[in-house]
Amino acid sequence: MMTTINEITCNEKPQWCVGCGDFSVLMGIKTAIAELGIAPHETVLVSGIGCCSKSPHYVNTYGFEALHGRSLPVASAIKLANHKLNVIAISGDGDGYGIGVQHFIHIGRRNFDLTYIVCDNQLYGLTTGQASPTTIKGTKSKSTPHGVIETQFNPIASAIVNGATYVARAYAGDLKHMTEIIKGAITHRGFALVDVFQPCVTFNKLNTYQWFQERVYKLQDAGHNTGDKMAALARAWEETNSEYKKVPIGVFYKENRPTYEDELPQLKEKPLVWHDISNVDISKAYAEFE
Ligand SMILES: Cc1ncc(C[n+]2csc(CCOP(=O)(O)OP(=O)(O)O)c2C)c(N)n1
Ligand code: SF4
Asked: Which residues constitute the domain of residue 77?
């Protein structure tokens, strides 16, 4: 089936700052869905709270804006209810790696067939520029006037160690490459993380488009083997180990493992929502909560 970008675009206009990397991420998601021929009603975009978390408002798919940090539990529940749906969760680095990090840590080992896109602008954008878990050590911000004293959180290494089966990074300044990475994540069966360097042009004066342009290189051009976990972990640390001289983007790690949905006999035949429950008596279960 053919899907066009127009079909996925809705009348609501994004309220992001001019030049924000979120525009590019949104276009990457829409292009990936269109090129894969997934119909708008087959996709659910689920977010938390933040600038990028407004994304579900700007697409003509199903959508859900959850509480701060809670995109993954809501996305998992939707997938359990109807595993035929294409479920994409989207969070900022504050949303996903800060307040919602506990969900991120456990989602990999469960291996739900989900795509998780994190718009990583290395700060809290919506609340006007406080430091986030991925802010580079030493950076001065509103919440760290003397510079961040903690070491940066490493989402790529964490995802690999915690069992994610597709771990990738993209850069909002390279839409074509990002779209391919997102397509790979959607078609992968299992939990897929796409961490996206998404410049916040208003508050992040360090990690600018120019900063990334001078540093990013593609793993696929460097002969990286995506099946080699130890090599993937070494690449995940390259950024900090090289003092940000080299910043790899592309697929770090990929493996095939049964998904959470595969392990549930109740889902073998059809999605939960397709089961007929009209003659199931749930009054006893309800009575327990009265
Ligand atoms: C429980 C709770 N705590 C704090 C906030 C305030 N808050 C809203 S968005 C946000 C951080 C957003 O940063 P990020 O997730 O990196 O997304 P961005 O805005 O940069 O896209 C915070 C702390 C909130 N809405 N709810
Ligand atoms: S504050 Fe930053 S992240 Fe938020 S819309 Fe503006 S540029 Fe984008």
From this structure: 5-287
